[in-house]
Specification:
30% strand, D-amino Acid Aminotransferase, Chain A, domain 1, 282 residues, 5-stranded antiparallel beta sheet, ATP-grasp_RimK-type, alpha+beta, nucleotide-binding, single chain, 4-stranded parallel beta sheet
């Protein structure tokens, strides 16, 4: 029997990602996988008669064998898992990787090299709590895509920061305008993309930086493999920055990762790789 699955987006994100959605559905048909696009807003989760329940448009719905969850909602993903639905990515990945403080906390236990980091206290930002000299980096814990990331050069920069949902992390800066995204599927490294900017300390391709394919060294591959052998990822982007001596420093892990840059630089079909991984696990 062909595996049945849900592809779940928020309705707003679905509009922006229609090309990617079409790509997933097309590849699924080629692989004899039945995948249905559904919107997070149409679901209700809770418990009824002391049993966990999920409703779609206020009605019971037949549950799939798997779900590709392309929205950030670890509670929702956990509900699906408790109802027996295999989720990609898992609720654990969603919880850790969409919180920069939790990402660094988890990876520090593994001894993964990272820039020195202070986990902020609550939603407020108080420069007097920062133990680093200027300049330093302030990041909103839940920020994505290079947004809500600030280079603080002096006290005036601190005054420009407002409260953030979930708080901030504070880091010593790495080499400006250069980072690396490693695309992974399951336990496999698919490709690495070097992103650089001549005009900004952030190198995100979507923010105007340039990009090129990058060959990982043996030492760099070892670091990536240590990460992916500890957590069961479906598909993710593991982002690194570089220290002054050129070595890797883990920056963050993208749960709901996009692949526009990889598609622009290569003919790698990462969506097909992802669906084949899901199909093999099922």
């Amino acid at each position: 029997m062909n595996p049945n699955g849900w592809l779940i987006y928020s309705s707003e994100d679905a509009v922006r990602n229609q090309a990617y959605i079409d790509w997933v559905l097309q590849e699924a048909r080629h692989l004899d996988m039945n995948i249905q696009l559904l919107y997070r807003e149409d679901f209700s989760i809770g418990h009824v008669n002391s049993k966990l329940a999920i409703l779609h448009q206020r009605k019971a719905i037949e549950l799939p064998s798997f779900a590709i969850v392309r929205t950030i909602d670890s509670l929702f993903t956990k509900q699906l898992e408790l109802l027996g639905i295999k989720c990609y990515n898992s609720s654990l990945v969603s919880e850790i990787c969409n919180n920069k403080a939790k990402t660094h906390q988890y990876m520090a236990m593994l001894g993964i090299p990272m820039a020195d980091t202070i986990y902020g206290n609550g939603d407020s930002f108080d420069g007097s709590d920062v133990p680093f000299d200027y300049p330093y980096i302030a990041k909103e814990i839940s920020g994505r895509g290079g947004k809500q990331v600030f280079l603080i050069k002096n006290e005036n920069g601190e005054h420009g920061l407002k409260g953030a949902a979930g708080g901030w992390i504070i880091q010593k800066p790495a080499v400006y305008g250069k980072d690396l995204r490693v695309f992974i599927v399951g336990k496999k490294i698919i490709a690495a993309v070097l992103r650089q900017s001549e005009t900004d300390f952030k190198a995100n391709f979507t923010l105007g930086g340039s990009a090129s394919l990058y060959e990982l060294s043996e030492r760099e591959r070892d670091i990536v493999e240590k990460i992916i052998n500890t957590i069961d990822f479906g598909m993710a982007g593991i982002d690194f920055v570089f220290s002054e001596d050129g070595s890797f420093l883990l920056n963050e892990i993208e749960d709901v990762v996009g692949s526009r840059t990889l598609s622009a630089l290569s003919d790698i079909n990462i969506v097909r790789d992802y669906l084949l991984h899901i199909k093999s696990e099922l």
